Amino acid sequence: MSVKIKSAFILVAFSFFSFLSFANEATQEKAQIQKINEQYFNEFNKSKAILDERTQEILSSSREGLGEFKNMIFSWTDFIEKKCVFATVESKGTEAETALFLSCEIEEYNKMNEYLLNSIISVP
Fold first, then answer.
1. Residues 6 or more apart from 88 whose CB is under 8 A from it?
2. Could you give the dihedral angle defined by the CA atoms of residues 32, 36, 42 and 48, in that order, rounded to the nearest 10 degrees?
3. Torsion from C-alpha of 96, 99, 105, 106, nearest 10 degrees
4. For residues 53 and 87, what is the distance between their CA atoms, to the nearest angstrom?
5. Interval 79-105: pLDDT, tens
6. Smaller CB count within 10 Å for the chain: N or C?
7. Do the beta carbons of residue 101 and residue 85 sit within 8 Å?
8. Does residue 66 form part of some domain?
9. Domain count, the chain
10. Does 6 map to a domain?
């Protein structure tokens, strides 16, 4: 084989193996991102389930102001959604978008859960 053919073969082989290496790293990175997002989804679902339980507990009580309470919950969850969309606008279209959005929602739902527990449920 001539030197040019050997050089071309080596270049093609190197390019192919570089591509395979890059593809493998990209696949691993996507798997890691998917795992992180799944963890955030699970944590979000827990926070949402706690909120739903506390909301039902309050709604099943014979307290006054249940209509106002429903309006507050609706407004608060709407606010959380809009706040987290705004807070993550810089990550729009990136791999981190979902994780950052869910992280924001988890934090805000936990704040709301704490408020409901400390300010409404624990009050006789």
1. 97, 100, 101, 104
2. -150
3. -150
4. 27
5. 999 999 999 999 998 888 999 999 999
6. C
7. yes
8. yes
9. 1
10. no
